[in-house]
Amino acid sequence: MKLANKYNRVNIITSLVVLVITGIIYYVVIHFILTEKLDKDLAVEEDEIKQYVATYHKLPLASSYIDQQVYYKELAKDVPDVRLFHYTSYNNAKEHETEPGRSLITSVKVNNKRYEVTIIKSRVESEDLVRIILLITLGVTIILLAALILINRFVLNRLWKPFYTILNQMKTYELAKMDDIAQQQTSIDEFKELNDSANAMAARVRQDYKELKSFADNASHEMMTPLAIINSKLDSLLQTDSFTPEQGAILEDVYHGVGRLFRLNQSLLLLAKIENNLIPDIQDIDLQELLVNKIRQFQELFEKDGLSLVQTLEPSQVRMSRYLADILLNNLFSNAIRHNQNGGSIEVVLQANSLQLINTGKDIELDDQLFERFSKSTASEGMGLGLAITKQICALYGFVISYRRKDEKHCFTVVFNPKS
Hints:
Low-confidence stretches: none
Oligomer: single chain
Number of domains: 3
Shape: rod-shaped
Structural class: alpha+beta
Mean pLDDT: 81
Helix content: 40-55%
Distance between the termini: 27 Å
Largest sheet: 5 strands, antiparallel
């Protein structure tokens, strides 16, 4: 979840909870104040009745008005005096309906007789007032929440725009292009500091990359010359007869070791060029035609190991370097032959959007480290860079390469347009 969305959610939920709690407290307080006002009005009516009794020594007439009613009832001698406020219903004779009311039950003594006095006042106006206040509160709450949502949606998104722009530039940053991260116009100090820090980091990475690339290039080129000299001298030495068979075996081992080191150096140089996109000869390639030629080139190796070949080639065209396409197919075919078994089979399936090489081999499932550099089985004579180079080529052009076991066979699949 994005930070802005997380902040918006927490902010809105917190505001909603606070407003609801505040609204409830506000409602309870207003209700209490209005009830206290009604009770005071009832107490005033009680005082007026008692004053009337004290003056005239009789009860005033019972009354039934729109918003007030007064009733009397004689009390028995053993009934104690009471004074009680409570909620009740109020019968509005004019409207012919029952309304909520508030009553005061008290007692008064007239000529040695005690009477229960019930005074009822309508709560309709109070309830209407509370309802209006509640609706106003809900309206203000809704408006406030809507304002918060709009502010969070537009204002905060605009405030966070420099951050996301810098983040996207860092995601798509290509070290080989040596570009700076564009400065974003913002008044937020933290975003300015982020932009400066990102550019400083990019500058340090570029400097380290230049130094490492320079070291790798120099080291590789410097190694090529002595390796070529050693290889040439060994060729000349092996053609002479001035050494014993034991010395010849030793020299042959040295010759193979130098050749292996030479191929390793070339593979590492190729990997560096692929990673830095230094092979720019991109063109449209007819994979069907290229595969037909490649199969013809490997025909002798198929026959040597007694491998049967099944091919299903549909028209397919990709846009990439022909040099790298040739290396990709070489590595896939070499891998299928090297790890096959005598009398085994290789199946090549080319479709418009994918290429599959399925070969027999040892009954083991390869692990996830298959495409890592120098990852190989103990029985393999390779350097463990072939599939790593293949994966790097696929990554350069957005292809996806994968491995799985299929019917006790090893299946390598390259998908050229995985999003389509």
